[in-house]
Aldo/keto reductase
Amino acid sequence: MQKIQLGRTDLQVTPICLGTMTFGEQVDMASAHRILDRALERGVNFIDTAEMYAVPAKAETYGATETIIGEWFAKNPGLRDRVVLATKIAGPSRNMDWVRAGAVDVTPQDFIDACDASLRRLRTDVIDLYQIHWPNRNAPAFGAVYFDPAKDTVNSSIESQLRALDTLVKAGKVRHIGLSNETPWGVMSFLHTAERLGLPRVATVQNPYALTSRAVDNGLDEVMAREQVSLLAYSPLAFGALTGKYDEPGFDPAQPTLGRIAKFESMRKQRWARPDALVAAREYNALARAHGLTPSQLALAFCYRSWRVASTIIGVTSEAQLDECLDAWTVQLSPELLEQIDAIRWRLRDPAQ
């Protein structure tokens, strides 16, 4: 895989990124280290994590994923220089009172403290890409469709957030910054504020992008293309719905071996498990099989080959899953198949948005 440049930065990453939110919940430390070893062996140089991981988020596993990655670095001196490391500061509380005591604002000091804590857990001196996990303001995210101005609260301004990040960059703790679960307005506001005040420029946006969740295509793609901001696509397999494992209508949620949606009740309440999202996933999965592909191959190749996507974040629970995702890099989708994909979207839109 040829490396690509993130935004206007000097970061050169593989177009496939290893997501790690399963580490510390579904994947224990020893297994996680084997997956990390295998990813590096297969040529992946990009790792993404977050302070709130593992997922599903809970107090007992807060910071566990970063700790597992830090132990891997400590166990393998020299590997840190071979990896582009991305992590994220959690946004305002989403019923997580164990993160900054459930505060509804992320203050400039919170940025400093959270970064320092991530650096300690990750056993490193610098984070290559430090991202805001979700907007520090009232904004539709994680499956919310509409913006509701009545829900606005008092939050630290975009300028104050950028000034805090600037402090981290100048201190040598962060190289570049990014956003996640962001809107077109948010991206442009960060860019304009940075340009006006000479503050760090956003390099990336990490948003969902999958066959059943293509809100990026509705305007954010133009913003990112024209402003040279790179898309990091997460959940390309829609939490497993685009692997075919939930294709049987009324799948038994008591079968935890099926995956996260089946294993965790909280996941079954999320956008990926909405009835209409599962219906759409089954159509795409059937289309894949009709063209001699596995559902995973179709879903991954769709992201891998999209001009919108700089790097696709894959989350796995085993080395076998990792290899399956990486092997899909060679899959090509014909123009006719892409037209059929768009025909399904025209009818069903983005049910997991």
Notes: The chain has eleven helices and ten strands. The radius of gyration is 19 Å. The mean pLDDT is 94. Residues 159 and 197 are 8 Å apart (CA to CA).
